[in-house]
């Protein structure tokens, strides 16, 4: 397994920030940014996490009445440089259950397979439970974004069929190496001064 990285941060509503209540379901950009809108306002101090690891189980997709849902296990293994062996060595592996909803769930289940290196960003939820007299702890990530780790391979992106993207014609890719026609000839300001020959 490749090196694992977990970055943790907390979100807080700062001074001057707008807080939206239950009646403000159409809060500006709330749905677009996947910000939870709850009764009484935005969630404060949620623990955001960015985990880099490998897909450990095949994503399980469910089409539910309130929208699509998918889950899979993510293995995040720390790696360190062993000076005695002069090689990278695997450390402890942490496992997370990653939950995706709506379009992210559909795209993740269609794109991911066991062993894929991925980067997952979302809200960390640590749950404790008692099952059959045993204490259980699970670490879940409510994913906001999931992508392949391009440091470890390549990927080809395909847009999903949405009405507004399907209607727009493809734009030609600009040629970044060839200057535009009007800037092809250097201006007087760009002309080098002739050197005096002695």
From TrEMBL:
It comes from the Bacteria. One of its GO terms (molecular function) is single-stranded DNA binding. CDD domains: SSB_OBF (cd04496). Keywords: DNA-binding. Signal peptide: none annotated. This is Single-stranded DNA-binding protein. PROSITE patterns: SSB. Residues 158-167, 179-198 have a biased composition (Low complexity). Residues 158-198 are annotated as: Disordered. Homotetramer. GO terms for biological process: DNA replication. The keyword Secreted does not apply. It holds the Pfam family SSB. It comes from Streptomyces ambofaciens (strain ATCC 23877 / 3486 / DSM 40053 / JCM 4204 / NBRC 12836 / NRRL B-2516).
